[in-house]
Q: What sequence folds into this?
């Protein structure tokens, strides 16, 4: 998939950016910023990489960066001439990782655990070319969920539908998930999976943007 059109006046790279992901929110963020890109999902086993990372005793707060780097390097190895963007997001709740729910029952349990409490999203990106990381950065957002009872959680899941199973934490803030929160601290794009302000700064530093 590509967003490339005849005119991207702010992009001065000779090729479109390679996004090592099929994430719809990430594609939308890049397109909204006027960046030409092609999406090529990284061929990695994220859960196996995560397990190995944690087994080595590495800091849980840096897991998103480790996965973003792995994605960028895997796609970059296949397309060495292009600038590749890898990104990842983790959810930390009371010192532990939460993952995407496999079923609606798991989603309901996840929301019930987080209701009335604050959790943190950590979002990281890495830019690679020819198998080498050229730039990387991360950002965080803290989200405080409303106090919800079982009936409210059930109504939300019924209204939101299967899309909640594709989202860490079982919510999509860009949609009906906005109903679940009392307070949010952090950049909106971080919540969607790509820290755009820091990414744009990194692209400027690499001489890829005219603005």
A:
């Amino acid at each position: 998939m590509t967003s490339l059109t005849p005119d991207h006046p702010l992009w001065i790279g000779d090729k479109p950016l390679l996004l090592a992901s099929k994430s719809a929110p990430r594609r939308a963020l890049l397109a909204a910023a006027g960046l030409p890109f092609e999406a090529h999902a990284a061929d990695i086993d994220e859960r196996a990489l995560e397990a190995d990372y944690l087994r080595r005793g590495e800091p849980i707060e840096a897991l998103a960066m480790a996965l973003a780097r792995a994605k960028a390097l895997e796609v970059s190895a296949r397309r060495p001439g292009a600038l590749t963007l890898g990104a990842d997001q983790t959810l930390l709740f009371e010192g532990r990782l939460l993952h995407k729910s496999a079923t609606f029952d798991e989603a309901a349990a996840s929301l019930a655990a987080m209701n009335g409490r604050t959790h943190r999203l950590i979002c990281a990106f890495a830019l690679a070319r020819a198998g080498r990381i050229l730039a990387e950065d991360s950002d965080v957002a803290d989200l405080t969920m409303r106090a919800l009872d079982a009936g409210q959680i059930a109504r939300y899941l019924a209204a939101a539908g299967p899309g909640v199973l594709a989202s860490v934490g079982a919510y999509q803030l860009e949609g009906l998930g906005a109903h679940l929160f009392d307070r949010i601290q952090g950049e909106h794009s971080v919540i969607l999976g790509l820290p755009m302000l820091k990414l744009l700064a990194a692209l400027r530093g690499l001489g890829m943007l005219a603005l």
The two ends are 25 Å apart (CA to CA). The chain has one domain: 17-205. Helices lie at 24-32, 46-55, 63-78, 104-114, 150-160, 188-192, 196-205.
